Amino acid sequence: MNAAGLSESPPEHVSSEPGRPRGRVAHLTSVHPPHDPRISKHCRSLLNAGWDVCLVAQEGRTATPGVRHLTIPMETSRLRRTFLSSWRVFRQALASGAKICHFHDPELLPVGMVLSLLGRKVVYDVHEDVPLQILSKKWISPWLRRPMAMLTASAEGLATRLFFAGVVAATPPIARRFPANTTVTVQNFPEIVASAPAPTAQSLRQRPDRAIYIGSINENRGLREIIRAVDLSANTSTSLILCGQFTDPVLEAECRALPAWSRVDFRGWQTSDQVLDALAEAKVGLVTLG
């Protein structure tokens, strides 16, 4: 298997003739942006291996030239995204003509199962430990979280055993939850480009009192508390670099209203090179994963 969970040798139904694509793969997501780094690396890997690749995702720019982007409208409502966006992804997956479908969201488990019944080879890409995440979801009633987590774990296990050709897990602990014979681990490491110059960095002593957070900006990562902590510093020049995207517009509005927001350098989504440059500017890195 390669980084996309597919065999390096072409299956019988794809061409191995020079100059012709080995087959078509559709990457499917209703949640992630089209420039999601993990999905983009999967797409590049497949393109470089000679596959025809299309991406079914929200409207927006993609990070992978050569990938056909089949768009779906962006939905802010969780309920509409679960049902309406899933239906749109399903229709676009059929329209793509791909015989192999690689999906990235637990919301698309039913879509993956139906595609499997229709003869597609389906790969489930597990970015997160979803049952564990459910236990910390504040929008779910506390007494419902554990039953929902158990139900989700059962649904993932059943679907992967009965319907899916393979699983791609983002971490070894996630991989251990799925059948070993059909699961590969592809971790979210940065791509090392030999020709890329290393960012020029001052020594830690020379850098200003600046912290940096990189990643998803949500309630569970404690971003509101991180921003408030900047105000607690005795040094009035203490600041925070914030790289990533807010997942909740309400949280974003609350953070922007905090007095310490004036000391936040909010940079939004960043490329890998931009992240390296940002890290070279900070003295302290913040990792707030639970």
Characterization of the model:
This protein is an alpha/beta fold. It folds into 2 domains: 162 residues, 3-Layer(aba) Sandwich (Rossmann fold); 83 residues, Glycogen Phosphorylase B (Rossmann fold), CATH 3.40.50.2000. Helix content is 33%, strand content 18%. It is built from 9 helices and 11 strands. A 7-stranded parallel beta sheet has the order 3-2-1-4-5-6-7, with helices on both faces. Strands 10-9-8-11 form a 4-stranded parallel beta sheet, with helices on one face. The longest helix is centred in the middle third of the chain and has 21 residues. It is globular and about 65 Å long. The N terminus is likely disordered.
Class based on secondary structure composition and strand pairing: alpha/beta
- Strand order across the biggest sheet? 3-2-1-4-5-6-7
Give the distance, in angstroms, between the N- and C-terminal Cα atoms. 31 Å
The total strand number stands at: 11
CATH superfamily of the largest domain: Glycogen Phosphorylase B
How large a portion of the residues is in β-strands, by DSSP E?
A: 15-25%
Low-confidence stretches: 1-16
Q: Helical residue percent?
A: 25-40%
- For the record, the CATH class of the largest domain is Alpha Beta
Order of helices and strands: EHEEHEHEHHEHEEHEHEHE
Q: How many discrete structural domains? A: 2
How does CATH name the architecture of the largest domain?
A: 3-Layer(aba) Sandwich
> What average pLDDT do the residues reach?
87
| CATH topology type of the largest domain | Rossmann fold
- How many helices does DSSP assign? 9
